[in-house]
Write a structure and sequence with these properties.
The complex is a heterodimer. Chain A is built from five helices and nine strands, in the order H-E-E-E-E-E-E-E-E-H-E-H-H-H. By secondary structure, chain A is of the alpha+beta class. In chain A, helix 2 links the parallel strand 8 and strand 9. Chain B has two domains: about 55 residues; about 190 residues, no CATH class. Helix content of chain B is about 65%, strand content about 5%. A three-stranded mixed β-sheet of chain B has the order 1-3-2, sandwiched between helices.
Amino acid sequence: MRRNSAVLLVCLALLGVSANIEGGGKAMSVQVKQGQVRATPSFLGKVLATLAYGDRVETLEEKDGWIRIVPPGGKAPGWMHTSALSEKRIVLKAGAKEADVAASTGELALAGKGFNADVEAAFKSRNRDIDFTWIDRMQNMSVPPDKILSFVQEGKLIPAGGGGR
Amino acid sequence: MTRIRWTAAALLLLAILGITGCTALEQVAKVGTSVAKTTGVVTDDQAKSITKVTTAVAKSFEEITPEQEYYIGRSVGAVLVNKYMPYPNGPANDYLNVLGQTLAQASDRPETFGGYHFLVLDSPEINAFAAPGGLIFVSRGMLRCCRSEDAVAAVLAHEIAHIQLRHGLQAIDKSRVTEALTTLGAEGAKSLGGQKLADLTKVFEGSISDVTSTLVNNGYSRSFEREADAAAVKILTRVGYDPNGLVAMLTEMEKNLKPGGLDFAKTHPPPRSRIEDIERLQTGGKALTEVPARQARFRKGLGNI
């Protein structure tokens, strides 16, 4: 009897944890440089807003790798892909307390810390023969959404629902 | 009684295995382990080791934030471009970027900190590299092994898969990751001072060299390549490309690889064995279908590669 309730307890505890992970109504952080909020759960969806790295959003529901969120400042809700969001709170200007929590629990991520622009600059000055011109050029190569759409249509490809999970 | 004990243990294990993502894993392991411990399903020692193992996993490359991955990728990319030189051909690079973005959007990780970007390298060697965070490089030699858009798509999908699965970051020596995180923990509050910045830069330099030497010299493990091929097949299918494009490309590569070469001949499993693994994933070996519109733009973009 005691064993049975033990099994039940294990199940309940695990269920509780997974519900917390999968469900809506929690806060998440934008973990990419620019996070687009879309009208539909698809990369073809109209962009309603662009959020900045570290912005906190409130989740409403999840569907096929997309999460419907409320942007900060009470703007209209929209969809973001899960890969653009983190469960961790991203602290943009960390104080000593946050640094401590980040190091010991892993619940926080410190923006701009660790391998960052300063480290890259120091790396460049130690390795002057390595030229970053083409890396900067690559990062500026962008493909507008309508170009992708016509590429897909012309090639008789499948319009992306936008990623799996 | 023993049976119930086993059921509980199995449930615990299933729950741990079933939930992906290391933070989640760590949480579940902690909660699950403490419950199992109080109910006597596992001993105190076993509980400690479950928690310890999962924590160790979570504290490794998983702790590298997408932002830090982006900086690692930039420097890895810079080393690669300086070694192989860029091929500054507008139509070829444009074509690669439109095709690549289309594929990346269908991957399990469509968004990275700085996004996906593609560049042709001016090298006759058969090579393709994925720097962490989304910078992908493909040599002219590799593109010459492709006879159709579906084959180019296969090459790019395989590289996107390496980024999605964060294989590059896993090439970084674990002690370096620990060292970087320790420095970060001690200094996270203020901006890095001279000595600390110098220390962290050394760790960074070491990490860049770990990743590039894996990409250029040693290659990934057989299982990473198999995982990347499997994920590539998934991406190709989602977008509507024929996954046989990967087989067609590998068949062509097999003809062109020179034994003892310093390219894919050195860093990747032999094409034949990759083909065998891929064919196991699919329903049948039908011939590669040719779509005229794809073939026309493929020729326009890469015809003279």
